[in-house]
């Protein structure tokens, strides 16, 4: 590619075998990656770095990987970096002897707190250097340990300890280290390094360090390099824990990884997701020639229930959050639904609010009023019932590769209905438009959102963790006359209210997420759908998240600049009349028009999506697809 990887690596890999890796080596690699936009060059830099780590200090590989991914632990442990701007400003000011206001002013000019930290640090004469003593250089394990500590500290009283810990790190920073350190603490490295790329590099580094690799033919080498990332990706979607995967890789390489890392009760897997559809005709076109099944689409919260080998029971959210303490009632009762021969399992189900008197489903709004943390069983006001729709693991065996038909049979054999507590998703193996329509109407009558249509048999009916698959289609009643699915958008700014809304924000700026460029792209201003109490709630929550400047990864136009900006922290479900091309909004820019984005017409707020993180928001690709679908399906609505 014309880049001098060897020369670059010579500088980077300048540490002794077995030594803790200097943090500067990683930062140099980040710099190299940042200096190019070419995917292959990015991959070469990172693969070469991982190769050095594997060969010289493999015991630091896990920490290196986490720092590249800007994480400190598996997602399901719910510990995240993402330290607030004001805290970081305080830390930078303290170490560099500038006032917080001066740091803020610099930030307004430069737009990148990492760069501000680096510049302030480098222009300041450190006291230690004046007295001849130099702080010890930072190492990867040292930085990782501190970051993990900072991320784990919680509560208001922890703020001072966090600042102190950040300052200790900052004091020892040299060169570019402060820039990347601060960006990591903010929650984004901003060097265009997507998680998928990191995994490709990790996989390829293992392939090329394998002794057998050099003996292979050219064609075989290429095959190994292509296959290895797929193995790691598929293993990760079943067992999303680098804590487990990295030691297994170090012990036995990529090829044997599947044997060592499998779906394990106690480690939640990323759930399979469904593809939105707009009409029954669209559904029938997709499933033509396949056996398929329709299930009620319950309107609650996804629950992934694990029974571990030791008998412990856990429940995880769609987002892999541990909800065990939110649902002590579910944990207590689930054993009644488990048949005697069922030991360990992983069950996919929907937790729905339930009316005990009428023995009927209640809408999601009721479930959303239930307390979220430290729930005490005797104080529960909102009763729930479980509706199981899939079984992913049973008695020591993963069922992911089995067809849905078989998984469903095993589900029904292994569990039993318990009135008002546990049931199976209502299903019907229908075949034509009329039958689907009748089943859809039936589902809506009992407070469901519509139907899930799933391929029932054959290779396309396996469970695909983390994938938005076309083998599962969602058909919601209200899609049929609108644009399709509602959107899940991130609130990144607000406009001051007027009149009745004087003391709260009056309208908000929303954005979708673009994983390709790792940025939030503005999509609309929204001021409709909010009750007075919604506006009050939003104000109380969001005022804590205000920032003086937009993040460098907000893609917006001056014409849409709000009065205040927010850290990306909350996802809102929004409905819209339709999508249109816009000269001032940036959603899906370059995907449907080379220079314009997509915007929403008449957006309306529906609800907060607590179970989604900002990066789980609707993607720009999803927006582009919805935009295009409007034209494809115009004459395709089955229900008026
Ligand atoms: P997505 O999860 O697809 O990003 P979303 O969170 O907005 O979108 P929906 O569009 O409501 O969710 O559709 C998928 C969700 O529907 C699942 O995550 C699950 O919680 C719920 N669900 C209800 N009934 C079923 C069912 N029978 N099969 C699968 N999922 C179901």
From TrEMBL:
Location(s) in or outside the cell: Nucleus
Top-level taxon of the source organism: Eukaryota
InterPro entries with a match to the protein in the record: ATP-dep_DNA_ligase, DNA_ligae_ATP-dep_bac/arc, DNA_ligase_ATP-dep, DNA_ligase_ATP-dep_C, DNA_ligase_ATP-dep_cent, DNA_ligase_ATP-dep_CS, DNA_ligase_ATP-dep_N, DNA_ligase_N_sf
PROSITE patterns, per database record: DNA_LIGASE_A1 (PS00697), DNA_LIGASE_A2 (PS00333), DNA_LIGASE_A3 (PS50160)
GO cellular component terms given for this protein: mitochondrion; nucleus
Keywords, comma-separated and alphabetical: ATP-binding, Cell cycle, Cell division, DNA damage, DNA recombination, DNA repair, DNA replication, Ligase, Magnesium, Metal-binding, Nucleotide-binding, Nucleus
Protein name: DNA ligase
Native source organism of the sequence: Funneliformis caledonium
């Amino acid at each position: 590619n014309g880049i001098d990887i060897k020369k670059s690596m010579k500088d980077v890999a300048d540490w002794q075998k077995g030594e803790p890796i200097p943090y500067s080596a990683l930062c140099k690699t980040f710099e190299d990656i940042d200096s190019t936009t070419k995917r292959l060059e990015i991959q070469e830099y990172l693969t070469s770095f991982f190769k050095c780590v594997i060969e010289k200090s493999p015991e630091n590989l896990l920490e290196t990987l986490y720092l590249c991914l800007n994480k400190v632990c598996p997602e399901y442990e719910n510990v995240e970096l993402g330290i607030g701007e004001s805290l970081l400003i305080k830390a930078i000011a303290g170490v560099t002897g500038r006032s917080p206001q001066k740091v803020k002013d610099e930030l307004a000019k430069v737009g990148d707190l990492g760069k501000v930290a680096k510049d302030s640090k480098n222009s300041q004469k450190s006291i230690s250097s004046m007295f001849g003593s130099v702080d010890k250089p930072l190492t990867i394990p040292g930085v990782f340990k501190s970051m993990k500590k900072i991320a784990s500290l919680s509560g208001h009283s922890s703020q001072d300890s966090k600042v102190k810990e950040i300052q200790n790190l900052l004091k020892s920073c040299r060169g570019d280290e402060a820039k990347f350190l601060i960006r990591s603490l903010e929650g984004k490295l901003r060097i265009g390094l997507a998680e998928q790329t990191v995994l490709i590099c990790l996989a390829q580094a293992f392939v090329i360090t394998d002794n057998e690799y050099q003996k292979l033919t050219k064609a075989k080498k290429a095959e190994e390099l292509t296959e290895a990332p797929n193995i790691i990706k598929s293993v990760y979607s079943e067992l999303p824990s680098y804590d487990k995967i990295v030691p297994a890789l170090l012990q036995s390489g990529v090829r044997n990884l599947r044997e060592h890392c499998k779906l394990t009760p106690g480690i939640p897997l990323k759930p399979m997701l469904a593809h939105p559809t707009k009409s029954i005709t669209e559904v029938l076109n997709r499933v033509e020639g396949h056996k398929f099944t329709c299930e009620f689409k319950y309107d609650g919260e996804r629950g992934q229930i694990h029974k571990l080998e030791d008998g412990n029971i856990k429940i995880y959210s769609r987002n892999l959050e541990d909800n065990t303490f939110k649902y002590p009632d579910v944990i207590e009762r689930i054993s009644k639904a488990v048949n005697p021969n069922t030991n360990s399992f992983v069950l996919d189900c929907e937790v729905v609010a339930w009316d005990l008197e009428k023995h009927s489903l209640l809408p999601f709004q009721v479930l959303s009023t239930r307390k979220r943390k430290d729930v005490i069983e005797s104080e529960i006001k909102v009763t729930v019932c479980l509706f199981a729709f899939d079984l992913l693991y049973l008695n020591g065996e993963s069922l992911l590769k089995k067809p849905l038909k078989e998984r469903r049979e095993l589900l029904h054999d292994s569990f039993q209905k318990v009135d008002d507590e546990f049931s199976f998703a209502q299903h019907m193996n229908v075949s034509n438009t009329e039958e689907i329509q009748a089943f859809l109407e039936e589902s809506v009558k009992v407070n469901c959102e519509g139907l899930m249509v799933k391929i029932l048999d054959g290779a396309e009916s396996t469970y695909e963790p983390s994938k938005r698959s076309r083998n599962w289609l969602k058909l919601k009643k209200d899609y049929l006359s609108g644009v399709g699915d509602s959107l899940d958008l991130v609130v990144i700014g607000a406009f001051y209210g007027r009149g009745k809304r004087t003391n709260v924000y009056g309208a908000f700026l929303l954005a979708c997420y673009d994983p390709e460029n790792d940025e939030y792209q503005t999509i609309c201003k929204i001021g409709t759908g909010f009750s007075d109490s919604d506006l009050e709630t939003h104000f109380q929550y969001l005022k804590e998240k205000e920032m003086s400047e937009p993040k460098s990864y907000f893609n917006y136009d001056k014409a849409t600049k709000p009065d205040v900006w927010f850290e990306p922290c909350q996802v809102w479900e929004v409905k819209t009349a339709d999508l249109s091309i816009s000269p001032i909004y940036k959603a899906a820019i370059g995907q449907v028009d080379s220079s314009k984005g997509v915007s929403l017409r008449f957006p309306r707020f529906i609800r907060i999506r607590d179970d989604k993180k900002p990066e789980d928001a609707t993607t720009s690709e999803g927006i582009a697809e919805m935009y295009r679908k409007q034209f494809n399906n115009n004459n395709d609505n089955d229900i008026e």
